[in-house]
């Protein structure tokens, strides 16, 4: 009984009774022989043999099981043949379990990490796990991620893997999470962040080190850095322009130039203050989000939540607390934070990302009527550079931070994203839908300008930068 109740069937489905409901919308006792064999087939490999995800694999393994049942005299040859000819017809109902499945997976992944117990041990325990789950936000997010209008097939007819997450800025709790593909563990999933890494690995630390201001002018032209020659998207270069414009248009060349000035060591040290440990071999590629080990989605969204919280870093998680069967507290997340950058530097970064949402790479968000900061990122396929493997949008308001990703979990060229799927496209459309439905009855407050920020020459500066900006060569022209 314990085994059947703890079996995992993929898609966040645990227990054979839930599998019957999810796959066939039936009570367990109502299943026919074909359906029973189909459910049994899933157990060997829930990702490979799920009738929801891989119907052909499921069909073939069901038939194998039926043959073995006949060979071992559990069923007759007539019963085997009758069950074989039955088509596997799975339910198309969107049960709450389907909508919430990925969130449940994330909770169990985190609980395992906290307690050291396996998922099965957790399910059979009497622990009570309290989460930050918000039912309404989960439905909004699920609808946006799975909307066919937001998913573009590639030339091989393959839909992108897609994922989104909503984090509450106040407590760092994950209110909603969904991914349309099977992953082993959200805390172990690593992807290349591309340009979505620039604000947290290049610009925020450079502002903090007083190396640049929004008015700093840089020559955005094709350059080589000790033999490394990055290119801007579609080989478009802005010429001599400000840092604000460079962030808005996501210049690759200038991001590398500023990182060189900041130094790789300081960028890595900055990342480490947020618990992000970059590989020793990572060099100037950090500027463009090309990392040896990649980032987890939770690491990436944590950096943006830090900016949304005026430079204060908070741990991100699904779980508020865990109690044992006697009500004793085993774990509690808490609301403590760590100051990473000043409120002034966080505000400057946010103000530039607000412009990115209005007229930069995330301009699809421009119709929103409340303060929204946003950054996009796109990573090309390793084999065919005309196709993409990852497309990101990270957006935040004063209330929430949102991550939207579409990509190619297999990294195989045949499953790569269409070249039309970039961070500023479909993931930003998903973010727009989530944000437009997230606030009902109220709108998030505007980002509050700290006292240390002043208007200067059509932009904003820290008071400490004014004297430097008034000097002839103050804008760190390069």
Folded structure, characterized:
The protein is an alpha+beta fold. The protein is 36% helix and 15% strand. It has helices at residues 2-6, 16-24, 33-42, 55-71, 77-84, 96-115, 119-124, 135-146, 198-208, 243-248, 252-262, 264-272, 297-308, 343-359, 426-438, 466-470; strands at residues 128-131, 161-168, 174-179, 217-220, 239-242, 312-313, 319-323, 329-332, 338-339, 373-380, 388-396, 400-407, 453-456, 459-462. The strands form five sheets. A five-stranded antiparallel beta sheet has the order 3-2-12-11-10, with helices on both faces. It has a three-stranded antiparallel beta sheet with strand order 1-7-8, covered by helices on one side. The chain has a two-stranded antiparallel sheet with strand order 4-5. It is elongated.
Task: Please name the defining characteristics of this protein.
alpha+beta, disordered C terminus, single chain, 478 residues, 3-stranded antiparallel beta sheet, 5-stranded antiparallel beta sheet, 36% helix
What class do helices, strands and sheet pairing give? alpha+beta
Number of DSSP strands?
A: 14
* Tally of contiguous helical segments: 16
The separation of the N and C termini measures 70 Å
Oligomeric organization of the protein chains: single chain
Low-confidence stretches: 472-476
Give me the secondary-structure topology:
Elements: H1 2-6, H2 16-24, H3 33-42, H4 55-71, H5 77-84, H6 96-115, H7 119-124, E1 128-131, H8 135-146, E2 161-168, E3 174-179, H9 198-208, E4 217-220, E5 239-242, H10 243-248, H11 252-262, H12 264-272, H13 297-308, E6 312-313, E7 319-323, E8 329-332, E9 338-339, H14 343-359, E10 373-380, E11 388-396, E12 400-407, H15 426-438, E13 453-456, E14 459-462, H16 466-470
Antiparallel strand pairs: 1-7, 2-3, 2-12, 4-5, 6-9, 7-8, 10-11, 11-12, 13-14
